[in-house]
Amino acid sequence: MYAANIATHKNTRMNTAPNLANKLPAELFVLNREMLASKMQDNSLAVLWAADEMPRNGDIAYPYRQSSDFYYLTGIEQEQSALLILKLNGIAEVSLFIREADPLLVTWEGPKLSAAAATEISGIKNVSHISSFDGSLAAAAFKAGSIYLNSNENPRAHFAVGCADERNGRKVADKYYLHAKLRLAPLLCQCRLVKSSQELSAMRNACRLTGDAFAQVAMHTRQGMAEAEIEAIIIKEFTKKGASHAFSPIVASGSNSCYLHYTGKSGILEPNGTLFLDFGAEVSNYSSDMSRYLPVGPKFSPRQSCVYQAVHRVFLIARQLMVPGATIAAIQEETCLAIDQELIGLGLYSKAQSAESISAGQPLYKKYFMHGVSHFMGLDTHDVGSKDIPLQAGMVLSCEPGIYIPEEGIGIRLENTICVGSASPDDFMEHVPIDIADIENLRKHA
Ligand SMILES: [Mn+2]
Questions:
Q1: pTM confidence score
Q2: Separation of CA 343 and ligand 1 centre (Å)
Q3: According to the 3-state scheme, what is the secondary structure of the chain?
Q4: 268 with 424: CB under 8 angstroms?
Q5: Ligand 1 center to residue 374 CA distance, Å?
Q6: What pLDDT, on a 0 to 100 scale, did the predictor assign at position 160?
């Protein structure tokens, strides 16, 4: 899984090993660091740490996922690493610290990164063992007037467990208490929002794999299958192509799709039921995000079909709003108005009731559409950036309107991953069927 293994492992089989083609070039990480350094104050130091290994139970850890910021600046996917960027008189000096692989560790866990491999991945020439980090930090801090420390500033992140940047950052802030402390997260947010061509191709690739997995699901879904079996189809498709889930997938049979972040696995696909999916592949740590709704039989019921087409019309309206200068907040407002019209059309309430509810400040549409229509995407599925940031070409975001009517057992969200283009939105999932006729056609021939 680690790039070091890729560099050192002699593959004697035919080349079917996953992940080889997904490696991003060192130049990307070089440019990312240059971009960050250009935003840093002069005579300052930025310090970041690799993500912790997250304990699961006993001596078992969850599968390792690098901190998005650390990966963005280094490409390094190995634990127990750290990064220093010292900017003096306009020139940035970068040092990377990696874990020392003693023979016992290698016996148990396999090869770890050598300094040469770390340089090849990251483009950083100055690579040392993590044991020398404290000394190097002291020397760098001596030269710098201020220190940038990083933290997870996602406003929706409410975790009892902190992150390595926060835990180590507190120690640094304490030790160097006379240095000015600065927030690194806003600078990284600016950098990460607009994607480079390599990042866009990773995301396009992730979207392609998501579409491939969807095609498999659409082909193999049968009545009587459990939700977990559908997830297994997705996992197989992702794993054999070197990808993984960008987030825990939602696979919901029937009315389970009314739960926005449904996590069950044991629901059974009913003969005339439906299947809702919200999932996405992650490639080179870059995410994709897609939602689709399928009939288990060859056709939707008339009512399901009406709601589906209502959501699809809103999807098309929302997507065309994703142009430079717009904000997610403004797109949300327009989407809500379109949803409101559709809900009236579906007979859920009258035009008069809608107007009354909106003027009372308690819009009725919120009962049926209670989430955001879009979020930024990138290394995080819910990526950095706020709803008030004007969109620019190269930003990537989701488009995901939905209508949920629990009393009728119908919950439909349709979602694609969209890149803001200079002229028009570039739908990275344009190739994945979404028109109701195409969806029913897939099932008819399954
Ligand atoms: Mn989404």
A1: 0.92
A2: 22
A3: CCHHHHHHCCCCCCCCCCCHHHCCCHHHHHHHHHHHHHHCCCCEEEEEECCCCCEEECCEECCCCCCHHHHHHHCCCCCCCEEEEEEECCEEEEEEEECCCCHHHHHHHCCCCCHHHHHHHHCCCCEEEHHHHHHHHHHHHHHCCEEEECCCCCCCCCCCCCCHHHHHHHHHHHHCCCCEEEECHHHHHHHHHCCCHHHHHHHHHHHHHHHHHHHHHHHHCCCCCEHHHHHHHHHHHHHHCCCEECCCCEEEEHHHHHCCCCCCCCCECCCCCEEEEEECEEECCEECCEEEEEECCCCCCHHHHHHHHHHHHHHHHHHHCCCCCCCHHHHHHHHHHHHHHHHHHCCCCCHHHHHHHHHCCCCHHHHCCCCCCCCECCCCCCCCCCCCCCCCCCCEEEECCEEEEHHHCEEEECEEEEECCCCCCEECCCCCCCCHHHHHHHHHCC
A4: no
A5: 7
A6: 87
- At residue 445, the pLDDT reads 87
Report, as an integer, the average pLDDT of 312-331.
Answer: 98
Helix axes 436-444, 197-220, angle to 10 degrees: 50
Q: How far is the CA of 111 from the centre of ligand 1 (A)?
A: 36
Compute, in angstroms, the gap from residue 289 CA to the centroid of ligand 1: 5
Percent of the chain with pLDDT over 90: 90
Phi and psi at 56, nearest 5°, equal -100, -65
Q: How far is the centre of ligand 1, averaged over its atoms, from the C-alpha of 375 (Å)? A: 7
Task: Give 250 Cα–ligand 1 centroid separation in angstroms.
Answer: 11
- How far does the centroid of ligand 1 lie from the alpha carbon of residue 286, in Å? 14
> Ligand 1 centre and the CA of 342: distance in Å?
21
